[in-house]
Model the fold of this input.
Amino acid sequence: MMKPPGVFHIESLDLCFAPKPWAFADERRTEIDAYFNALKREKPDVWNGRVLLMYDCVVENGVLRGQYLETDYASFSAWCHWDRPAAGVGDCFSAAGIVSADGAFLLGVMSSHTFNGGRVYFPCGTPDPGIIVDGKVDLGLSLRRELKEETGLDMTDFDVEPGWTMAVDGALIAQIKVLRSNETATALRRRILEYLASEERPELSDIRIVRGPGDFDPAMSGYAIAFLTSWFSRG
Done:
């Protein structure tokens, strides 16, 4: 039986770039290439860039310490498509938990041209080499970039809560930063939708407002449901 996602508070992150080969990508190269070629035919916008995956991680005294290797998006997407089989890595990324003045969270619906089209997520993105700063993997930088790219919102628009909430769902490890707004959920959604309408190929197709478990959707990721369940249970 699979374990349900776990939700934990983390004070800080200490993540470094320590490149090494990923055996999964080497050993399953032929299968990966065949999968990705088929994916490209279905979704031509998918690009085989470079991404980072975490390995060798531990939580000590409220600090998540870990190392990241670099691989190609084809290998990463195949691993995800095959339900993230044990491969010595974790998909550890940052996500924006936007909470409105009236206590609702805002999640995005991924556009159909993206890899995860139709899924409902917090604004987030897979870490890539562009967030490596002086040998450190800066998930805060990734968060700021993805928030701006996906919603048009800036971190300065929010009161940023200290620390992170780590939601672990198997090999998927979300680092959620709670961002509090002084605007209502309806006003925030309107702002984001105006931004999306101005983009030629937006990553998000819609914004969902979640005020409680009654707004949960089967298309929502397990880590998001686990985080929101924990949050709303605290009242």
